[in-house]
Amino acid sequence: MPWRRRLDALHLSAALNDAVRGALQAAVVLSGQALRVSMWARIATFERTQRRLARRHGIGPDTPILRYGPEVQAAVEAFAARCAGTRFAFTSGSTATPKKIAFSPARLRRIKQGSFSVAARLFASHPGWRTGLFILASLATDDSLTSLLLDDGPALPPRALGLLMPGRMLREPSVRALAERYGAAATRLWLLVLANPGLVYSTNPSTLAVFLAHLGGEWERTTALVRDFVRDPQGFEAPVQRVAARVVSRGFGERAARIAAASAPLGLADCVPALRAYCCWDGGYVRPFLEQVRAALPPERVRLVPMYSMSTETVETLSYFDGPVVRFLPVAPGVLYEFLPEETPDDPTQLVPAYALEPGATYSMVVTDPYGLRRYQTEDLFRCEARVGAAPDLRFQRRQGLSYSFTGEKLTDRHLEEAFARLRAETPALVAEGIQLTCVPSQPAGANVPGYVLVLAHPARELSVPLDPRVLARRLDALLGEINSELRAKLETGRLAPTRGLVMPYDRLASRLDPKTRDTAARTWESQFKLLPLYRRLWEARDDVA
């Protein structure tokens, strides 16, 4: 066949790459087994280590609990001033004001080591999985922690690193040029089909859900690069061919030919047959996205491996593979973890040490680390599921105190989650179309009364079923009125305007809700943006992207 003759050079590269992959796989599995021992040691010494860290950080009974503000920012900047080469990352659009967090080269290395430990121990637990982690990160450089971690190295990584993490090639200039021509989804699929990795990672399941929506809903466009490359690989410039040779694995021609010949969209598991798992957040508010991903990736073929909890401010937990069960333990090096029972004020006398948490109870996490955080209230709520030795097994639940009130209605995320669940049950098209819901307070200039905006965020494709956002907004008001009597009274008396409904692509909504100013370094929604049920900032805060 003609495509076979044109791909001879790639076949040779694929054979070489797969031989190197085999050696890398053995090394990763061996490292994972050694790192298991290290994790067991952390667990065995957890209580003693936490007591020692309290002394080292100078934390006493009267040390106050701090939320993000001038005092915390001053401490973060003081840490940055002490460490050469420190850079700053900003939190995503889930908060009203982005938080500025310092990362020294040593701190970035420690985070990478923790991530490698998790991946290596996962592959050691499943030695039959093909080694290769494809990160669905943003193609653009931004000011997120994810970008700092990925940009800390050459655009064209060494061959071994490229084989282990083929997604890093997305930052190479010629690959970025492909994305401008074919689109990000098509470029990612091309690399995935070339490399055939065993594991796909996205911090947010929304990133993976949108990619899968492109694959299923825009098949011709998303597969155009694969088809063009199979048809004429020599027609692409030398840097692109060099990237392909760096990551290609055996069977690429057959995989690409199957895609080119398909008369209907194929699933990602059919395009990337070695794929055995995907890793992403599974706690808090991301369940609708996970449902969308599960519908596209058959659970019997591709397993969900929940990601450990990590915010820009701190590593909150690390994964521990306890047989078939994944546990999440607060054992990041150098971090002191303390907890407040749910609904408890920020009173240091009420703090509970990490080794004294009760299974079944919910707590907010307070951390102290060497990087400027000192009894810092993360505002993240965790449920203690069980204990592994003295270390608690923690599951992220939600942000603490996520609420908004114009006139005393005290609308909360829990009110909206309940109303959204009922709205989805009543309107199956919301689920079928992959629609995600969020609510944003609104007070337009010149408006007599404030209100809320219900946004129907959809993947980057045309909706096949017409949905009237005005009807859904009216129904949301009725459902919320049954849950929140104060809000119902405010609507009935005209102190709150009826909720407005809008339909918007997910990426445009994320850009709209990003609170950073126009002159901030460029960023994209894919790195860290979290779609919350409720935001604590006005819809009108970024009129330039309306």
Total of helices: 21
What structural class do helix, strand and pairing data support?
alpha/beta
Quantity of strands, as a count: 18
Poorly predicted parts: 517-523
Explain the overall architecture:
It contains 21 helices and 18 strands. It is of the alpha/beta class and 546 residues long. Among the domains are: 129-306, no CATH class; 403-545. Helix 17 (413-426) crosses helix 19 (469-483).
Provide keyphrases for this structure.
globular, 4-stranded parallel sheet, 5-stranded antiparallel sheet, alpha/beta, 42% helix, 18 strands, 546 residues
Secondary-structure blueprint:
Layout: H1 2-6, H2 8-44, H3 46-56, H4 70-82, E1 87-90, E2 100-103, H5 105-125, E3 133-135, H6 145-151, H7 159-164, H8 173-182, H9 184-195, E4 199-201, H10 205-217, H11 219-222, H12 224-231, H13 238-247, H14 252-261, H15 268-271, E5 277-280, H16 287-296, E6 303-306, E7 318-322, E8 325-329, E9 336-341, E10 352-353, E11 362-368, E12 376-388, E13 391-399, E14 403-404, E15 411-412, H17 413-426, H18 428-432, E16 436-442, E17 451-458, H19 469-483, H20 485-492, E18 500-505, H21 506-513
Parallel strand pairs: 3-4, 4-5, 5-6, 17-18
Antiparallel strand pairs: 1-2, 7-8, 9-10, 9-11, 11-12, 12-13, 14-15, 16-17
